[in-house]
# Entry
Amino acid sequence: MSGRSAAFPYWRLSSFYFLYFACLGVMVPYWSLYLESAGLSAAAIGIVLAVTSGTRIVAPNFWGWIADRSGRRLLIIRAGAVMAALCFALLPAGESVAWVAMCIALHTFFWSAILAQYEVITLAAMGSEVHRYGQVRLWGSISFVVLVVLVGMLFDHAGVARFPVVMMLPLLMLVAGSFAIRDAAPPEPRRHGSGVGALLRSRVLWSFLGASFLLQLSHAPYYGFFSLLLAREGYSSTAIGYLWALGVIAEILFFAVAHHVLGRFSLRRVLVVSMLLAALRWLMIGFGAGSVTVLVLAQCLHAATFGSFHAAGIEFVRRHFGYADQGQGQALYSAISFGAGGALGALGSGWLWDRSQHAVFLLAALGAAAGAVLLRAGMGGDSAGASPPLAERKPA
# Structure
């Protein structure tokens, strides 16, 4: 890959993030509301969400293993987009919890083939401009904001029961978009002597992965039940959409300046501060949902609880895994955090939700705080000073 400034295809890379996160702009805020409207209890919703997250434990590693050995990342992305859309289209054919769980598990299995491999393509395509990753990724956040607001308004008028039909539109657009992107480089064969075995013995790596697990575990009540909490507090679907959008706008603002932050502060410091602010955020939501002011401030903290942690996390994985193992590195990060952390958090949240919503967010805050402690202890020697330029390692 060329390392020349501004040589990478900025708009082509950004457009696929735009389409991918447009799907999430429909799915994340309104999935639980749809499940509740379909008659599922909080415990059943927790099971469905846990099945989704549990699938993310296995699927990303499976796809990452195939991608790193075959080099066919683009083919995997396209197949994942097509099959994810087809599996989701099966959802309206049944109403039982088992049917919903099966459809969403299949959808998630193929959905998990897309983003981790596209992250590898993006970072390789950017070459020496990799420090501008946040400026590419922010277009995904922009589409999330647009869709979450528009869909919230739509559901206020048409009802959330229309969710499956609405969701299919961005999924089909993503399928079309997957055939417009290009691979960053010719498929690279796996190099002899490379692999993740030695890295898996690293205390620093497991400290990072453990903290990622705890952060996503703490996010589970937010992703699964934040919309339900707001609805019970009397907020309309439009207002719920605005609050979700506000959080992602804060994320966008961080991504726009991420290269400055990561160039000035160590990865450890960025990650620790992100975890501490996450703990504060969950306390604000859990105990202050009746106040619009508190919710607005809490949503602004999304810049830290997702934005800064994710940007630093992607850079951590890039630095610690060689190019030939990037797929497995991204997959491992996704499986342990969004997969295992999300699954356990969803199960616990679903079981505890009707008993005590305050307790759910209190435990989430404690989990995030524990992650900060883990990072402080386990990453003491990692990136102790300011982070070096993000382009310091290029694909081989």
In short: The chain has 14 helices and no strands. The radius of gyration is 20 Å. Residues 64 and 158 are 40 Å apart (CA to CA).
